[in-house]
Please model this.
Amino acid sequence: MSKRNFHSDVASIRKQARQHIESGAVTEGYKADRETVLTMLNGALATEIVCMLRYRRHHFTAKGINSQSIANEFLAHSNDEQAHADRIAERIVQLGGNPDFSPNKLTSRSHAEYAEGTSLNEMIKENLVAERIAIDTYREMGRYFGDKDPTSRRLIEEILAIEEQHAEDMSDLLVDMPIDGVQH
Model:
């Protein structure tokens, strides 16, 4: 395997860095369609906020013999989703956009639904469904970002890994969950 020499035209990079400085982190080398990326990230932001709210509600309304440990799991996931939302909002600002926190439009932009659930079993299932939706949409987003926006890709991939763990956690909770009073 031959070694390839890395060569960068530092003089050109320095010159370009001085142009359009109001664009902050978005340099001439940014290859993605910024408006599309911002729309996608605002959709992910809405998804994370809706998931945070759903998990938080489930934390407070969980009832039953297994409820305390499951409620604690819901709270931990809610906190993770809030952290994801914060990271996504930071990236939107970094790209020169505005994070859309408008409560009037959250559910219409969110990939996941806000399903309340009335039993622990329903709550776990709704959270698992939402995690599976996030997994597939974030996987698609990562492919779209590719090499055109590696920072957004890495951010979404990092969040995706945690969403996969959340889905596994919810799936594990379902294993020993009684369904209609019958233990499985």
Observations:
- DSSP finds six helices and no strands in the chain.
- The radius of gyration is 20 Å.
